[in-house]
Amino acid sequence: MLIDAPSLYFRAFFGIPESAARAADGSPVNAVRGFLDMLATLIRTRRPDRMVCAMDHDWRPDWRVALLPSYKAHRLAPAGGEVVPDTLTPQVPVILDVLDALGITTLGAAGYEADDVLGTLSVTQPAPVEVVSGDRDLFQLVDDARGVRLLYVGRGVAKLENCDGTAVRARYGVPADRYADFAALRGDPSDGLPGVPGVGEKTAARLVERYGDIAAILAALDDPAAGFAPGLRTKLTAARDYLAVAPKVVRVALDVPLPPLRTELPTAPADPERLLELAERWNLAGPARRLLDALATRPQAAA
After folding, report:
1. Predicted pLDDT of residue 227
2. Which of 300, 1, 56, 10 is nearest to 156 (CA)?
3. Class level of CATH domain 176-250
4. CATH code of the domain occupying 2-173+253-296
5. Which of 3, 90, 126, 251 lies in disulfide reach of 53, CB 3.0 to 4.6 Å?
6. What pLDDT was estimated at residue 297?
7. Which of 42, 51, 54 is nearest to 4 (CA)?
8. Where does the 5'-3' exonuclease domain lie (predicted)?
9. In angstroms, what CA-CA distances link 173 with 148, 193, 257?
10. Are strands 2-4 and 52-54 parallel, antiparallel or unpaired?
11. Is the dihedral of CA 245, 186, 212, 172 positive or negative?
């Protein structure tokens, strides 16, 4: 199980009121509590024996911005860095401390987003693999042949959607391995991808189904017999420069250099005393206990 940690802890932060989860000193721990409870639910219901939590070591990599300057530009703080709620930022180190005490591996890579770490692990780790995220871009990682699925948590972990290739096609009308081309055509305001003006999901899906990818679409634009409607040809031609780079921006990296790592999910905390200290300091006794119970009661643990 590959966890998109930022996706989950952002959802936890906005899903649980700060007033409902505070440490003894009054510090909000809503993101921490929600994240730990999400992990407990996933472990209890999906029963993985391996897990890695991927982190954003670079939320807006320079190589993506060089290709498309608008990439996530709307989320850039005036002083630099990502716009993140002030009360969420200090909770991330607490999450990392708790995961370390538990013995659950966390991993990031300089110059890459968590998505890229997840993508690389999805093709290098033994199958089956379940990727957990609320990020639509990760639909492109679904691979029935390799046994890679996306557990999409856009509506929360309790309502996760277990997506294989059939589910991706039913949802968007394209195969999973063409999702990046589809998304580049359609656009994604949440990532600063403008898309092609006047091309929505249905038209984007039709284009991908007919031509296969954006490179083939651009090649067909130069063929008068390709059969484009005049208006659509005009729109695509006007967006040619954008379309030449957008798929590279959307496509998740599958070749991030990663160090050797331990993926086995523990059945007991790696550092019980440290975990107890963190639970007491941050008022996390309940979530910690639920997570420990989920770890201890997996079939693998019983065996």
Report:
1. 79
2. 10
3. mainly alpha
4. 3.40.50.1010
5. 3
6. 86
7. 54
8. 1-264
9. 19, 20, 33
10. parallel
11. positive
